Amino acid sequence: TIIEDSPLARPVGDGMHPFRNYSRRYYGPLRLREALGNSLNIPAIRTVQFTGVGDFLDRLHDVGMESLDRNAGHYGEGLALGNGEVTLLELVRAYTVLARGGVFHPLRSTLSGKTTGRSRHRVYSREAAALIADILSDPQARRLEFGSGNILRFPVQTAAKTGTSNDHRDAWAVGFNHRYTVGIWMGNLDGHPTGGLTGSNGPALLLRTIFSELGRFEEAQPLPTSPLLAEAKVCSHTGQLASPSCPTIVEKFMPGTLPQ
Predict the structure, then answer these.
(1) Strand ranges inside 20-100, DSSP E
(2) Distances (CA, A) of 71 to 26, 67, 84, 89, 186
(3) What's the average model confidence in pLDDT over 186-199?
(4) Which of 15, 137, 237, 247 has its Cβ near the most Cβ atoms within 10 Å?
Protein backbone atom coordinates (compact mmCIF):
# COMPACT_ATOMS: atom_id res chain seq x y z
CA THR A 1 0.00 0.00 0.00
CA ILE A 2 1.30 3.43 -0.96
CA ILE A 3 0.82 6.25 1.58
CA GLU A 4 1.51 9.89 0.77
CA ASP A 5 4.08 11.61 2.97
CA SER A 6 3.53 15.30 2.22
CA PRO A 7 2.62 18.45 4.21
CA LEU A 8 -0.63 18.01 6.14
CA ALA A 9 -2.59 20.37 8.38
CA ARG A 10 -5.92 19.93 10.18
CA PRO A 11 -8.25 22.55 11.71
CA VAL A 12 -7.91 22.84 15.48
CA GLY A 13 -10.06 25.47 17.20
CA ASP A 14 -9.79 28.70 15.22
CA GLY A 15 -6.58 27.76 13.44
CA MET A 16 -4.75 25.03 11.57
CA HIS A 17 -2.42 22.51 13.18
CA PRO A 18 0.42 21.35 10.91
CA PHE A 19 1.58 17.77 11.31
CA ARG A 20 5.29 17.13 10.83
CA ASN A 21 7.66 14.20 10.77
CA TYR A 22 10.36 14.20 13.43
CA SER A 23 13.05 15.20 10.91
CA ARG A 24 10.77 17.83 9.30
CA ARG A 25 11.39 16.09 5.96
CA TYR A 26 8.79 14.77 3.51
CA TYR A 27 9.41 11.76 1.30
CA GLY A 28 6.38 11.71 -1.00
CA PRO A 29 4.66 8.39 -1.85
CA LEU A 30 5.96 5.57 0.36
CA ARG A 31 5.16 1.93 0.84
CA LEU A 32 3.59 1.09 4.20
CA ARG A 33 6.80 -0.78 5.13
CA GLU A 34 8.84 2.42 4.79
CA ALA A 35 6.28 4.62 6.54
CA LEU A 36 6.15 2.35 9.59
CA GLY A 37 9.83 1.47 9.64
CA ASN A 38 10.81 5.16 9.65
CA SER A 39 8.23 6.14 12.31
CA LEU A 40 6.80 8.84 10.04
CA ASN A 41 4.03 10.91 11.60
CA ILE A 42 2.15 12.10 8.53
CA PRO A 43 1.58 8.61 7.07
CA ALA A 44 0.35 7.57 10.53
CA ILE A 45 -2.22 10.37 10.48
CA ARG A 46 -3.33 9.48 6.95
CA THR A 47 -3.67 5.85 8.03
CA VAL A 48 -5.87 6.62 11.04
CA GLN A 49 -7.99 8.81 8.79
CA PHE A 50 -8.54 5.70 6.68
CA THR A 51 -9.26 3.30 9.55
CA GLY A 52 -11.23 5.75 11.69
CA VAL A 53 -10.17 6.91 15.14
CA GLY A 54 -12.97 4.96 16.86
CA ASP A 55 -11.97 1.61 15.38
CA PHE A 56 -8.31 2.34 16.13
CA LEU A 57 -9.13 3.12 19.77
CA ASP A 58 -11.10 -0.13 20.04
CA ARG A 59 -8.07 -2.05 18.80
CA LEU A 60 -5.82 -0.35 21.35
CA HIS A 61 -8.25 -1.48 24.04
CA ASP A 62 -8.03 -5.02 22.62
CA VAL A 63 -4.25 -5.05 23.18
CA GLY A 64 -4.69 -3.95 26.80
CA MET A 65 -4.27 -0.17 26.81
CA GLU A 66 -6.73 0.37 29.62
CA SER A 67 -5.49 3.88 30.46
CA LEU A 68 -7.13 5.18 27.27
CA ASP A 69 -10.45 5.77 29.05
CA ARG A 70 -11.75 8.76 27.05
CA ASN A 71 -13.80 8.65 23.85
CA ALA A 72 -12.38 8.82 20.34
CA GLY A 73 -13.42 12.46 19.94
CA HIS A 74 -11.26 13.45 22.90
CA TYR A 75 -8.09 11.99 21.36
CA GLY A 76 -8.76 12.70 17.69
CA GLU A 77 -6.32 11.74 14.96
CA GLY A 78 -3.38 12.52 17.25
CA LEU A 79 -4.04 9.16 18.90
CA ALA A 80 -1.96 7.69 16.05
CA LEU A 81 1.01 9.76 17.26
CA GLY A 82 0.70 8.92 20.95
CA ASN A 83 -1.34 11.76 22.45
CA GLY A 84 -3.09 9.22 24.71
CA GLU A 85 -1.05 8.46 27.82
CA VAL A 86 -0.45 4.80 28.70
CA THR A 87 1.88 3.07 31.12
CA LEU A 88 5.09 1.33 30.10
CA LEU A 89 3.55 -1.93 31.30
CA GLU A 90 0.58 -1.46 28.94
CA LEU A 91 2.88 -0.60 26.05
CA VAL A 92 5.03 -3.68 26.55
CA ARG A 93 1.98 -5.89 26.99
CA ALA A 94 0.61 -4.58 23.69
CA TYR A 95 3.82 -5.50 21.86
CA THR A 96 3.69 -9.01 23.28
CA VAL A 97 0.52 -9.45 21.20
CA LEU A 98 2.60 -9.05 18.05
CA ALA A 99 5.37 -11.21 19.50
CA ARG A 100 2.87 -14.01 20.29
CA GLY A 101 1.43 -14.21 16.79
CA GLY A 102 -1.50 -11.88 17.42
CA VAL A 103 -2.77 -13.36 20.71
CA PHE A 104 -3.18 -11.27 23.88
CA HIS A 105 -1.93 -12.89 27.08
CA PRO A 106 -2.29 -11.26 30.50
CA LEU A 107 1.07 -10.55 32.11
CA ARG A 108 1.99 -12.37 35.31
CA SER A 109 4.24 -10.99 38.00
CA THR A 110 6.98 -13.53 38.69
CA LEU A 111 7.07 -12.62 42.38
CA SER A 112 3.40 -12.45 43.33
CA GLY A 113 1.88 -14.57 40.56
CA LYS A 114 -0.73 -11.83 40.02
CA THR A 115 -1.94 -11.41 36.44
CA THR A 116 -2.73 -8.09 34.78
CA GLY A 117 -5.19 -7.59 31.94
CA ARG A 118 -8.06 -9.43 30.34
CA SER A 119 -8.05 -13.16 29.65
CA ARG A 120 -6.31 -14.61 26.61
CA HIS A 121 -7.88 -13.67 23.26
CA ARG A 122 -6.88 -13.24 19.63
CA VAL A 123 -6.46 -9.67 18.39
CA TYR A 124 -4.64 -10.04 15.04
CA SER A 125 -4.34 -12.93 12.63
CA ARG A 126 -1.04 -14.80 12.74
CA GLU A 127 -0.28 -13.45 9.26
CA ALA A 128 -0.89 -9.80 10.23
CA ALA A 129 1.28 -10.11 13.34
CA ALA A 130 4.07 -11.79 11.37
CA LEU A 131 3.98 -9.11 8.67
CA ILE A 132 4.24 -6.23 11.16
CA ALA A 133 7.04 -8.02 13.02
CA ASP A 134 8.87 -8.47 9.72
CA ILE A 135 8.62 -4.73 8.99
CA LEU A 136 9.76 -3.71 12.48
CA SER A 137 12.79 -6.01 12.19
CA ASP A 138 13.82 -4.80 8.71
CA PRO A 139 16.87 -2.45 8.86
CA GLN A 140 16.31 -1.32 5.27
CA ALA A 141 12.76 -0.24 6.07
CA ARG A 142 14.01 2.45 8.48
CA ARG A 143 17.07 3.74 6.62
CA LEU A 144 15.47 7.05 5.47
CA GLU A 145 15.28 8.42 9.02
CA PHE A 146 17.72 6.21 10.93
CA GLY A 147 20.43 5.42 8.36
CA SER A 148 21.75 2.05 7.24
CA GLY A 149 24.06 1.37 10.18
CA ASN A 150 21.70 2.40 12.95
CA ILE A 151 21.67 1.03 16.47
CA LEU A 152 18.46 -0.94 15.80
CA ARG A 153 20.28 -3.27 13.40
CA PHE A 154 20.46 -6.28 15.74
CA PRO A 155 22.64 -9.34 15.07
CA VAL A 156 19.58 -11.56 15.64
CA GLN A 157 16.22 -10.78 14.03
CA THR A 158 14.53 -8.42 16.47
CA ALA A 159 11.50 -6.18 15.93
CA ALA A 160 11.96 -2.73 17.42
CA LYS A 161 10.14 0.60 17.63
CA THR A 162 11.17 3.89 19.26
CA GLY A 163 9.28 7.01 20.24
CA THR A 164 9.97 10.53 21.46
CA SER A 165 7.31 12.84 22.89
CA ASN A 166 6.96 16.58 22.31
CA ASP A 167 9.62 18.71 23.99
CA HIS A 168 11.66 15.53 24.62
CA ARG A 169 9.77 14.79 27.84
CA ASP A 170 9.67 11.05 27.15
CA ALA A 171 11.82 8.65 25.17
CA TRP A 172 11.04 4.96 24.83
CA ALA A 173 11.93 1.83 22.91
CA VAL A 174 10.20 -1.54 22.70
CA GLY A 175 11.50 -4.66 20.99
CA PHE A 176 10.91 -8.39 20.77
CA ASN A 177 12.72 -11.43 19.43
CA HIS A 178 11.62 -15.06 19.28
CA ARG A 179 11.44 -15.31 23.09
CA TYR A 180 11.58 -11.95 24.89
CA THR A 181 9.76 -8.61 24.77
CA VAL A 182 11.57 -5.64 26.33
CA GLY A 183 10.39 -2.08 26.92
CA ILE A 184 12.36 0.93 28.17
CA TRP A 185 11.24 4.43 29.13
CA MET A 186 13.55 7.34 29.91
CA GLY A 187 12.51 10.74 31.21
CA ASN A 188 12.16 12.92 34.28
CA LEU A 189 9.50 11.94 36.79
CA ASP A 190 8.46 15.58 37.20
CA GLY A 191 7.85 15.84 33.44
CA HIS A 192 10.42 18.46 32.50
CA PRO A 193 12.30 18.03 29.19
CA THR A 194 15.32 15.75 28.99
CA GLY A 195 17.51 18.05 26.92
CA GLY A 196 17.33 16.30 23.56
CA LEU A 197 17.13 12.63 24.55
CA THR A 198 15.31 10.60 21.88
CA GLY A 199 14.10 7.04 21.70
CA SER A 200 16.81 6.16 19.21
CA ASN A 201 19.80 7.59 21.11
CA GLY A 202 18.88 6.60 24.68
CA PRO A 203 16.44 3.74 25.19
CA ALA A 204 17.47 2.04 21.93
CA LEU A 205 21.05 1.71 23.17
CA LEU A 206 19.85 0.10 26.39
CA LEU A 207 17.43 -2.11 24.42
CA ARG A 208 20.32 -3.41 22.34
CA THR A 209 22.40 -4.06 25.47
CA ILE A 210 19.60 -5.99 27.19
CA PHE A 211 18.93 -8.20 24.17
CA SER A 212 22.65 -8.87 23.89
CA GLU A 213 22.70 -10.05 27.50
CA LEU A 214 19.52 -12.12 27.11
CA GLY A 215 20.99 -13.79 24.03
CA ARG A 216 24.28 -14.84 25.62
CA PHE A 217 22.95 -18.30 26.46
CA GLU A 218 20.20 -18.55 23.85
CA GLU A 219 20.39 -20.15 20.44
CA ALA A 220 19.65 -17.48 17.83
CA GLN A 221 16.32 -17.95 16.10
CA PRO A 222 14.31 -15.86 13.63
CA LEU A 223 10.95 -14.34 14.52
CA PRO A 224 7.98 -16.66 13.96
CA THR A 225 6.25 -16.20 10.62
CA SER A 226 3.35 -17.73 8.70
CA PRO A 227 3.56 -19.95 5.63
CA LEU A 228 0.43 -18.20 4.34
CA LEU A 229 2.28 -14.92 3.74
CA ALA A 230 2.94 -14.49 0.03
CA GLU A 231 6.06 -12.97 -1.54
CA ALA A 232 6.36 -11.11 -4.83
CA LYS A 233 8.77 -8.78 -6.61
CA VAL A 234 7.27 -5.31 -6.75
CA CYS A 235 8.30 -1.87 -7.95
CA SER A 236 9.85 -0.07 -4.98
CA HIS A 237 8.20 3.22 -6.03
CA THR A 238 4.64 2.13 -6.80
CA GLY A 239 4.11 -1.13 -4.91
CA GLN A 240 2.79 -2.70 -8.11
CA LEU A 241 4.21 -5.86 -9.68
CA ALA A 242 7.79 -5.47 -10.86
CA SER A 243 8.55 -4.26 -14.37
CA PRO A 244 11.83 -3.74 -16.29
CA SER A 245 11.53 0.06 -15.96
CA CYS A 246 11.39 0.22 -12.15
CA PRO A 247 13.75 -0.80 -9.32
CA THR A 248 12.38 -3.91 -7.65
CA ILE A 249 12.27 -5.40 -4.16
CA VAL A 250 10.75 -8.54 -2.69
CA GLU A 251 7.75 -7.70 -0.52
CA LYS A 252 5.52 -9.84 1.67
CA PHE A 253 1.74 -9.78 1.45
CA MET A 254 -1.28 -10.94 3.39
CA PRO A 255 -3.14 -13.85 1.76
CA GLY A 256 -5.21 -12.69 -1.19
CA THR A 257 -3.63 -9.21 -1.41
CA LEU A 258 -0.93 -9.68 -4.05
CA PRO A 259 -1.01 -6.76 -6.52
CA GLN A 260 -2.49 -7.67 -9.90
Answers:
(1) 28-31
(2) 31, 12, 11, 22, 28
(3) 89
(4) 137
- Name the percent of the chain in helix, strand, coil, to the closest 5: 30, 25, 45
Report which residue type is found at 87.
T
Assess whether pLDDT exceeds 80 at residue 149. no
Average confidence (pLDDT) over 108-118: 80
Backbone angles phi, psi at 199, to 5 degrees: -60, -30
Model-wide pTM > 0.85: yes
Please give the angle made by the CA atoms of 1, 53 and 137, to the nearest 5 degrees. Answer: 45
Rg (CA), the chain: 19
- Over residues 20-49, the mean pLDDT reads 94
SS3 101: coil
Residue type, 50: F
